[in-house]
Specification:
Elements (H helix, E strand, L loop, with lengths): L18 E6 L3 H12 L4 E7 L2 H7 L7 E4 L8 H11 L5 E5 L4 H10 L3 E4 L4 H12 L7 H13 L12 H11 L4 H8 L3 H15 L4 H10 L4
Parallel strand pairs: 1-2, 1-3, 3-4, 4-5
Helix pairs in contact: 3-4, 7-9, 7-10, 8-9
């Protein structure tokens, strides 16, 4: 069952856009603590909190939230399976994993499924709120321990000589940014090119890799070590 409705008396600041957050977390004390933190902070509002992924998926409507904050180790359907479904339902909504798991397999599975960022549950409240703002703004926040693992594994990746899709240098750079969690706008800023140019390169990447989405492109890049 979902937690009680969010606090309607959460502080509001005139002229400040409120970030709506959905929480999926099976531990009641953690779920309620996150809800209280978000509703008690100006500029944020919890619009739904759920015990399981199944409960969330059955109750979420067509109106997209600002960000989804989900655990990975959930009862029933895992958070990773749920992220893939949520990504298909809300293609543009950032999905932030908040979990105790810090192993390589779980991290990359969550990111390949469509996760936008990955935080550990020892993240301080202030940093968690900062990460919610960051991910809504197009970033890909990660706990320091996770970021170190991702960086190390990226350095170790070497594309097999047989795997050549004739990607141009810019396409390869864009693909790397996608793997890191960037969107069109943030990738355009990182590459110092327009969003239209990014979309053009993205279309070519999809054609060359024979995929149909960012998630599929990222998964193939990681699986075949293309970056």
């Amino acid at each position: 069952m979902p937690s009680p409705p969010p606090n309607a008396d959460a502080p509001r600041v005139p002229g400040v856009e409120v970030i709506s957050v959905i929480i999926i977390e099976d531990l009641r004390e953690v779920r309620e603590g996150l809800t209280a933190l978000i509703n008690g902070t100006a500029g944020f509002r919890c619009v739904g909190s759920f015990y399981s992924m199944e409960s969330a998926l059955s109750r979420l409507g067509d109106e997209a939230p600002g960000v989804i904050l989900t655990d990975i180790g959930l009862p029933g359907m895992s958070g990773i399976e749920g992220i893939a479904i949520l990504r298909a339902h809300y293609p543009e909504v950032p999905i932030l994993a908040l979990t105790v798991y810090d192993n390589d397999e779980q991290i990359f599975a969550a990111l390949c499924a469509g996760g936008t960022g990955y935080l550990l549950k020892n993240t301080p409240p202030a940093r968690l709120l900062e990460s919610l703002k960051e991910v809504v703004g197009g970033g890909a926040p990660m706990s320091p321990e996770v970021a170190r693992r991702v960086t190390r594994l990226f350095r170790e990746f070497r594309p097999p000589e047989s795997a050549s899709y004739r990607l141009t240098p810019q396409e390869t750079e864009l693909l790397k940014l996608l793997v890191e969690g960037h969107y069109v706008k943030t990738a355009a800023r990182a590459m110092n090119i327009s969003t239209n140019t990014v979309s053009f390169h993205l279309k070519n990447i999809y054609q060359k890799l024979q995929v149909h989405s960012k998630t599929e492109a990222v998964a193939k890049a990681l699986r075949e070590r293309l970056i």
